[in-house]
Amino acid sequence: MSESFDVVVVGAGITGVSTAYHLLKLGVGRVLLLERAAPAAGGTGKSAAIVRQHYSSALMARLALESVAVLEEVERETPGAFYQSGYMMLVPQELRQAADSNLEMQRAVGIDTRWLTSEEIATKAPWLDSRNIGGVAYEARGGYADPVRVTEHFIGKFRDAGGVVRVRTPCRALWRDGDRVTGVVVDGDHIEAGAVVNAAGPWAKPLAEQANIPMPLRAVREQDSIWQARGGRPLPEVSISNAVDAIYLRPMGEGRFLIGQGFPKEYFDVDPYNYRETADQAFIELMAERAIGRFPPLQGMALLSAYAALYDVTPDWHPFIGPRTGIDGYYDACGGSGHGFKVGPAIGRGLAECIAHGKTTVDFAGLSHDRIAAGQLFVGAYGGNRG
Fold first, then answer.
1. Are 259 and 248 a contacting pair, CB within 8 Å?
2. Disulfide engineering: 55 pairs with which of 61, 87, 132, 135, CB 3.0-4.6 Å?
3. pLDDT (average), residues 332-358
4. Residue 370: which CATH number?
């Protein structure tokens, strides 16, 4: 006899675990969380986990704002999960006008953000070479998180509330009966479900397409590096998106920094089941060159590690969230496109509301996969996955 759950969530990254926990919090009876490896083993655990609210669409800005509030709740219960150190975006002169419009929109939706004055830049960022910078946008509520600790927080709350977690249990297929998804297949066993949430990240595409559900999703290789800076120097204590030199940086404590390459850059499609997880030497050298050029006190920093993970990328670099027209019992929760950790906590809460009550306090209807057929794709102010 097959098992039965009210909801099965496939994937224990940030979006999946937030969805699963909030479903139980809202009173949904039996919820199963499936993970092919371990919680946060995919993109979540390898995420830069920079927390920012700087987006060029009001929808994404609201989701990021809501996610900050969720992370603040997490930090109160799990200290060390969220470091609210602040966030800076270094804007080149050619993007200043677009950034001006973005900041105005962000303030309208309730985000505390502003341009720093020249005097404030000198005081808050003595480690910065400000040549060729058109402005520095600042968010006091931004910062960075420990993505594994945040994920484990939701897993623990989910289990405490009676949720069922099965790790190292790949979902082999979605069980589809006509125009309805009725469950999943796990190692030959059929698990019935009132609803299935596809939060499988880069593995969401083969899972959906096996059930004849279109999924225009790319799996692309994303590299990051971790460095140890020398002591006795002024060093960044905030998370930074450096759009001037196309890098991002965030502290990791004790003089360590995570540094990665931002847009514009080439993106290489890979097989999510078989890709190289070590970083390229050319990438490592480029990150050192660009970081030291913009942040001179990093001169002499030592490489600790470098690796490659995956982005699950949609055609417009915005996630697929929610139900689809013509398919009952199925919900998308994938396509983070590099933004998954920033908006995942709020998406999980809102998607749970949608499943449990048919409506949500976070209106993310625009993120439905239905936008593809309707030709209503998002257009970012800066291009690529800058948001």
1. yes
2. 61
3. 95
4. 3.50.50.60
**DSSP for 214-278, written as a single string:** ----EEEEEEEEEEE--SSS----SEEEETTTTEEEEEEETTEEEEEE-SSS---B-BTTB---B
CB distance 207 to 171 below 8 Å: yes
Alpha-carbon Rg of the chain, whole angstroms? 21
Report whether 34 contacts 171 (CB < 8 A): yes
Residue 302 belongs to domain spanning: 3-386
CA dihedral 323, 324, 328, 334 (to 10 degrees): -50
Instruction: State the Cα–Cα distance between residues 227 and 222, nearest whole angstrom.
Output: 17
C-alpha distances out from residue 110 to 41, 53, 68, 187, 332, Å: 33, 10, 12, 47, 27
CA distance 312 to 78: 28
In angstroms, the CA 203 to CA 41 distance is 13
List CB contacts of 47: < 8 A, sequence separation 6 or more.
14, 147, 309, 340, 341
Exposed / middle / buried, residue 47 (Cβ in 10 Å: 0-12, 13-18, 19+): buried
Q: Quick check: 180 pLDDT over 80?
A: yes
Q: How many domains does the chain have?
A: 1
pTM, 2 dp: 0.96
340: number of CA atoms within 13 Å, CB side?
35
User: What would the DSSP string read from start to end of 299-335?
Assistant: TT-EEEEEEEEEEEE-TTSS-EEEEETTEEEEEEEE-
**2 vs 22: CA distance, rounded Å:** 25
* Residue 113: strand pairing partners: 139
Confidence of residue 55 (pLDDT cuts 50, 70, 90): very high
Tokens coding 382: 């800066």
Q: Are strands 87-91 and 239-242 parallel, antiparallel or unpaired?
A: parallel
Strand pairing report for 218-228 and 239-242 = unpaired
Contact 52, 139 (CB under 8 A): yes
